[in-house]
Amino acid sequence: MKPRTKRAVAIAGGLAALGVAAALVLNAFQSNLVFFFTPTQVAKKEVPIDRNFRVGGLVEGGTVVRQKDALSVTFKITDGAQSVPVTYTGILPDLFKEGKGVVAEGRVGTDGIFKASQVLAKHDENYMPPEAAEALKQAGHPMAKENFAGQGGGGVTR
User: What's the pTM value of the predicted model, to 2 decimals?
Assistant: First the structure.
């Protein structure tokens, strides 16, 4: 084989290997991607059926019910317009309270109940995911402020 042909084969092989590596990285990224939705979007069934996603808003007052096993809890997350029933089994964050911000990760069951695998409670009064703050603002909720989202270095805690 001529040197020119060997070089062309090596370049083609390198490009093929690079393409396979890029496809594997993109596939891994796609499978670990978790989207955020508001309770209104969940109620309208604008959420993925077979994938985990996050839903955020405020824990609706009077809806937190702890089960006898002390680890299972049911509650509702609201954005002021719609509410989503949530079930969770595990240890809740210390800051989890009615009327406070929360983000839950999981999926909607066939019964329409969001089955959370993880619950995150906000720990800074000046932060809320922008989508949740916008949904509260549109619903005219008193917790919605013009500059609520994106301020401070706060976030959520497990």
Answer: 0.63
